[in-house]
Design goal:
Structural class: mainly alpha
Strand content: under 5%
Number of domains: 2
Distance between the termini: 56 Å
Shape: elongated
Number of helices: 9
Radius of gyration: 17 Å
Helix content: over 70%
Length: about 160
């Protein structure tokens, strides 16, 4: 397995939110370290994996943010940081990161959907709709487009019902 493949698999395993899968994710990152030493990319993935555990999240976020001074993170790394920030209720910081990434790469479906979901959570429905309208031009029939549109409609209805 390649270094990048181990890194991607570690992220997927960490998302499962089970201790066993997080341990497997750490083991994959240990394999990378044993093969080529510590790299900043691997460190950020390792911090993401640690941050999936609520008891380590704040420290992992802090350490992740410290790495930003050493080298500009990739889009994927910024998405990982934004995910941790959302999980730790730092929604403003996550919004800024996702907005920046969306501006830099307006065709990145993964980022667009995450940004739209955060905007929905923040009840910024008009902005979410504008972004979704543009995204639907790129992926008009994709599952993620349809799911995001459905989430927006549902949130708008729930918000309207609460206003009555």
């Amino acid at each position: 397995m390649t270094v990048d493949a181990r890194r991607r698999l570690a992220v997927l395993l960490a998302k499962s939110d089970t201790a066993g899968d997080r341990d497997r994710a750490v083991a994959l990152m240990d394999d990378n370290r044993n093969l080529r030493g510590d790299t900043l990319h691997d460190l950020r993935v390792r911090l993401y994996v640690r941050g999936r555990n609520e008891s380590f999240r704040r420290n992992a976020i802090h350490q992740f943010q410290e790495t930003l001074r050493r080298q500009t993170p990739s889009i994927d790394e910024r998405l990982l940081l934004a995910e941790l920030l959302v999980d730790d209720a730092h929604l403003g910081q996550a919004r800024t990161i996702l907005s920046d990434v969306n501006y830099e790469d307006p065709t990145n479906g993964q980022c667009i959907v995450r940004f739209v979901n955060l905007l929905i959570h923040l009840k910024e429905f008009a902005k979410a709709q504008r972004i979704l309208t543009e995204f639907a031009k790129i992926e008009p029939t994709s599952v993620r487009t349809i799911a995001a549109q459905a989430a927006l409609v549902r949130a708008e209805k729930e918000s309207a019902a609460k206003m009555k």
